[in-house]
Write a structure and sequence with these properties.
The protein has nine helices and seven strands, in the order E-H-E-H-E-H-E-H-E-H-E-H-H-E-H-H. The protein is α/β, with parallel strands linked by helices. A seven-stranded parallel sheet has the order 3-2-1-4-5-6-7, sandwiched between helices. The structure holds nicotinamide-adenine-dinucleotide.
Length: about 300
């Protein structure tokens, strides 16, 4: 999609972090924006901020885990603007803990939002986007966690691997159907946002029963550290729009330790080696050592 001017963007998880930055960027590109989020007050604030210059920004309180709410989000967006050209499936939550200690509700909450939230939006928006015969674009927010595997974050990694796979399937499906809708999967590195307080949005029906061998705090501390000097959400939004403009599917960081780790995983796959654990701060700083692995 080469020109966004006058077109319509729907962004889930738009009240904070990457979603809010995507909204700001969409307005800067001359788009009309529908901002959806489960958090009502921050959503109203974000919409007011993003629309302060007079751009049309419509906040719609939406829990992406609810098929009914996502359906009415799509109805509202099409009723208001007649078309949706850019769908950013960005809402996401994070939960740490070992694969066996995470509770049933831990797993289900993460998958409800990160995986079923995306599936719900695809089901509600793609048929309408196809029927409108307008040029369309879908950006699904996965993560470098979708291309790597770290200990004590199994539910999150698994959900983000699922988003990569769903996006790849969607890309093929739309192409087979001859639809004028392109897809990108956004795989950010560490980004300064509110992700480390994702449990603020955890519903009572999926309450945290606190089963944990202590790793949750270790991961939370590591994430807090990673946030210091991390990439800004605005830079991720800029990268996303550049990719959409170029119709580039994989939206990845440049020379970042997480890119090395993804290549390292693919090298293990290629060589039928057992997964090697390398933490981001153990990634070789020597460019030739990195290049050997990254040539996979
Ligand atoms: N921050 C990072 O380091 C990082 C890295 C890679 C990928 N991501 C991904 O980026 C996306 C955005 O996260 P962020 O980092 O901006 O965090 P954030 O917490 O700042 O923003 C996430 C937004 O999603 C909303 N949300 C949560 N549950 C929802 C639901 N059920 N329905 C609708 N909205 C809901 C939250 O209210 C919040 O506004 C997520 O998918 C996350 O997994 C983040």
């Amino acid at each position: 999609m080469h020109d966004f001017t006058g077109r319509v963007a729907v962004i889930t998880g738009g009240a904070s972090g990457i979603g809010k930055a995507l909204g700001e960027r969409a307005v800067a590109e001359g788009m009309k924006v529908v901002l959806a989020d489960v958090e009502e007050a921050p959503l109203a604030l974000a919409a007011a901020e993003i629309g302060a210059g007079g751009a049309p920004v419509l906040p719609v309180v939406t829990d992406v885990t609810s098929t009914a709410q996502v359906e009415s989000l799509a109805e509202r967006a099409f009723a208001e603007y007649g078309q949706v050209n850019l769908l950013c499936n960005n809402a996401g939550v994070f939960c740490a803990g070992s694969a066996w200690e995470c509770s049933d509700d831990d797993w289900r909450w993460v998958f409800d939002v990160n995986v079923f939230g995306v599936a719900n939006c695809l089901r509600a928006f793609i048929p309408r986007m196809i029927a409108s015969s307008q040029q369309g674009y879908v950006i699904n927010t996965s993560s470098m966690a979708g291309l790597t595997s770290m200990p004590f974050v199994a539910a999150y990694h698994a959900s983000k691997h699922a988003v990569v796979a769903m996006s790849e399937c969607l890309h093929h499906e739309l192409s087979f159907k001859g639809a004028d809708i392109r897809v990108s999967v956004l795989c950010p590195e560490a980004v300064t946002t509110n992700i480390n307080s994702a449990s603020r949005n955890r519903p009572a029906s999926r309450a945290d029963i606190g089963v944990d061998g202590g790793e949750r705090q270790v991961v939370a501390d590591a994430m807090d550290q990673a946030m210091v000097g991390a990439t800004s959400a605005a830079a991720i939004a800029e990268r996303s729009f550049e990719a959409a403009r170029a119709e580039r599917f994989y939206v990845l960081p440049g020379d970042d330790p997480w890119v090395y780790l993804a290549h390292r995983r693919m090298a293990d796959l290629r060589d039928r080696e057992n997964p090697a654990f390398v933490s981001p701060d153990q990634v070789p700083t020597d460019p030739s050592a990195r290049a050997r692995v990254q040539s996979v």
